[in-house]
């Protein structure tokens, strides 16, 4: 039984490697193309992250101003309602920023896969996803 387990692990490992690299075995890899694909993906990630950070900073600034304005209100009930509204608006803005960022990451990953395929190269197992 132990021998079958070892063989299964070895066969499974080879199958994984073939899945990751076998599609392009023997193909001539265009290194400049791969480097360009990497640049494109990393630059899209940087842009997405910068946009995410800007969106979150803007949401925090709006929340700050709304909370400060809430303290100008004359009753506790109005103040608490305004603070709740500010926090809910912040959460919504933050969630939208998260979704926008994750969408950009998915688009970048998908494009990277297509670019690598065009370069006749399979991404390394540790860089296939971001």
Automatic annotation (TrEMBL):
Keywords: Signal
Signal peptide start and end residues: 1-25
Annotated protein name in UniProt: DUF5667 domain-containing protein
Upper classification of the organism: Bacteria, Candidatus Yanofskyibacteriota
